[in-house]
Amino acid sequence: MSIPSINTAREILEEAGKLNPGQWLPHSMNAAEAARSIAANHPELDADTAYVLALLHDIGRRSGVHQMRHIIDGYNYMQKMGYSSVARICLTHSFPVQDLKVAAGKWDCSCEEYEFIENYIKGIDYNNYDRLVQLCDYLALPNGFSLVETRMIDVALRYGTNAYSVQKWKQILSTKQYFEAAIGCSVYSLLPGVFESTISTKFKLD
Question: What confidence tens digit (pLDDT) does each residue in 29-67 have?
């Protein structure tokens, strides 16, 4: 896989945080820890690889406060750096269902970029790393690990829902069950403080 080392990935995220500070940084760190813990118990996944991919899944947010634009910004930035495996995750993490209509955020990119993303997502077969980062995106809040359902509410309150939201949620829950079957335990058993951080979550209500 074409990915940076853990130290380089952390440096990339640290630089991005200086360009655009925000809650996406601790969210990314928590997603990475979740991915590493699950991968370490999976018979076919590498924990360090999973960590790096999840750590940088939102790296496109380095370019500013955007919605769906962040995925193409991340893809382009990682491709430019030569990390095509991370670039792939920048796109796939937003689409548990391989249909751009499931996106909760606004499409604040060009028509050409939208078409590129659509063709890319439809043209690949998801692997276990794609699915793992999609899951871990829903296991991580800025204040810690999270129940999947809590993260679903968090995203829905911030970005709204659409006719495809339930389909997306079902896929995430299916992915969770898929990984739990592979690792032989609940993913929550691997995430310290998940219930405490879920209870303490403050939702954005305005």
Answer: 999 999 999 999 999 999 999 999 999 999 999 988 888
The answer to pTM > 0.85 is: yes
| Cβ count within 10 A of residue 39 | 24
Residue 16 belongs to domain with CATH number: 1.10.3210
Q: What is the DSSP letter of 140?
A: E
Nearest alpha carbon to residue 37 among 174, 153, 194: 194
Across 76-93, average pLDDT: 98
The total number of structural domains that make up the chain: 1
Could you list the beta-strand ranges (E) of 23-159.
Answer: 140-141, 144-145
Flag whether 187 is in a domain.
yes
Identity of the residue numbered 181: A
Q: Please state, as a whole number, how many other Cβ atoms lie within 10 Å of the Cβ of residue 163.
A: 8
**Does 205 fall in a domain?**
no
